[in-house]
Amino acid sequence: MTATPEQLAFLQGINDQVNAIPYEATGSDQDEDNWIDNPEPGKVWQCRDYATRKAELMRSQGWAFGDMGWVLCMTEVFADPSFPDRAPARYYHCVEFARAGGVVYVLDNRAPQVYRADQPPFDYQWVHQQTHEPGSTEVTWRDASAGLV
Question: pTM of the entire structure?
Answer without folding.
Answer: 0.86
